[in-house]
Amino acid sequence: MKTITLGFSLVVGAATLALPADTVPLNQQQARTSPEWITRGVMYQIQLRAFTPEGTLKAAQARLPKLAEMGVTILYLCPIFVSDDDMDRAGWSPRQKKSGMNNPRNPYRMKDFYHVDPEYGSDDDLKAFVRQAHELKMRVMLDMVYLHCGPKAVFLEKHPDFVMRDKDGKMLLKAWNFPGLNFANPELREYLWKNMEWWLRDFDVDGFRCDVADGVPLDFWETARERLEKTRPDVGMLAEGTRKADQLKAFDLDYGWGFKWEDAAVIRKQWEKMRAERPHGGAKFIRFIDNHDISNDDYDNRLEKKWGTPRVNATLVMLFTLDGVPFLYNGQEVADTARHSIYARLPINWANGETGAGKARFAFCQKLCALRRSEAALNQGDLVWLDNDTPAAVLSYLRTSGKEKILTVLNITDKAVNAKLAGLAETFKPLLAEGAKSDTQGSFALEAHGYFVGKK
User: Fold this and answer.
1) How far apart are CA 330 and CA 319, in angstroms?
2) Among 307, 309, 296, CA closest to 261
3) Helix (H, G, I), strand (E, B) or coil at 398
4) For residues 345-370, b (16+ Cβ closer than 10 Å) or e, as one string?
5) How far apart are CA 424 and CA 369, in angstroms?
6) How far apart are alpha carbons 244 and 251 in whole angstroms?
7) What's the helix, strand, coil split of the chain in %, to 5?
8) Which of these, 12, 33, 353, 407, has the minimum number of CB atoms within 10 Å of its CB?
């Protein structure tokens, strides 16, 4: 069977090489090779209005040693650039109005792409933040919002054609009631490419998360990548989106909203579909259950309240043992339940980190980070799904790298289940387990949200 599979792969590969790239099916093409710091990392999102009571870069910098202690390797900052202060509510997004914060300064409605918003500090404060992060062996990614801008964007007076307009010259609005940037204008593209080069060169950031990346032409991002690599060959690029060709040339990672984390069979089916549709090596995603958008829209009913600790912990195990890059949102490491808003300063309840539950969660996240860092199968290995006889309730899969194998068996439901894994006769030494018992024949007794992670 192995000989047949190998021969087939060689034939397909030879045929692929003989065809022009634009005629080769996307899922037979090869994705770009991505920097190891991003594909093997642990990503942590900082939403400055939530991260500290002060809401500033200086205050955030003071907390960086704690993140390094936990094992985070990549810091992704929500937009820190000057936001538009236009008080005309007609130009506010529906979510912004619904929030009740009555604040025009939406961090995703840009006024000036080239400076740090004074609310968060100064340009020099960002440089100091990046230096400190690098000293602590952490990378920094900035959030670039290029689909749209604010109605008072600083470039509009000199460059009115930087935004889309109708035949009468009126600005055309994209989603969220914001003026859409005009990517048909080469000067606009140059302005934005130079903007990315500016932050990379003068501030020493390591890469970018690109907001609503699917809404921006892919060739813009591909050219951006080519130019940025001249300054930093190992620049990292994360797309908010699920465009299937993203990782051919432009991006290293994507993320979207396809996973509900509620039905194990659906999770596996979705994973297999996303893998099958994309280039070889081009189905790399961040794995998350909370972020700035989710927490903002949850108001007071945050994930920790809705799900409870056992389910959150089990799902975190899943995020750290699946392929892709595990992602933590600020405050998850102390089981924060405070309301967050991207439209106002509503800080994490860091006092929860001193409670038993908060200390236990931090230690748990620290252990997950250490496990990913130390086990090659988890940070670079292939994923192989294992069939089991309770597929809607239990996820079971191997991560493999060379001779190393790591098994994960996880009950995503709130009911105890027994699961028999097909074709598993090997014994795995537990690395991390809760509410799980197994025998040597591949049978597992799992409590509600129980899990087993073992190594052979």
Assistant:
1) 16
2) 307
3) strand
4) bbbbbbebbeeeebeebbebbebbbe
5) 27
6) 11
7) 40, 25, 40
8) 33
Mean pLDDT of 271-281: 97
pLDDT digits (tens, 9 = 90+) for 101-136: 999 999 999 999 999 999 999 999 999 999 999 999
Domains of the chain: 27-374 (3.20.20.80), 385-455 (2.60.40.1180)
DSSP alpha helices (H): ranges in 214-291? 218-231, 246-249, 264-277
Inter-helix orientation angle 356-374/309-321, to 10°: 10
d(CA 95, CA 430): 45
**pLDDT (0 to 100) of residue 439:** 87
Query: Which residues sit opposite 455 in a β-bridge?
Result: 406, 429
d(Cα 334, Cα 272) in Å, to the nearest integer?
A: 33
3-state SS, residue 383 = strand
Gap between the Cα atoms of 237 and 410, Å rounded: 31
Does residue 65 register a pLDDT over 70? yes
Nearest to 84 by CA among 141, 143, 145: 145
The pLDDT tens digits of the residues spanning 153-190 come to: 999 999 999 999 999 999 999 999 999 999 999 999 99
Model confidence, pTM: 0.94
Alpha carbon of residue 402 to chain centroid:
27
- Band of pLDDT at residue 13, cut at 50, 70 and 90: very low
CB 440 within 8 A of CB 427: yes
DSSP letter string, 147-206: SB--TT-TTTTT-GGGB-B-TTSPBPB-GGGPBBB-TT-HHHHHHHHHHHHHHHHHH---
Helix (H, G, I), strand (E, B) or coil at 430: strand
In which band, very low, low, confident or very high, does the pLDDT at 3 lie, cut at 50, 70 and 90? very low
CA distances (Å), origin 239, targets 82, 174, 207: 22, 19, 11
- Which neighbouring-strand residues pair with 179? 173
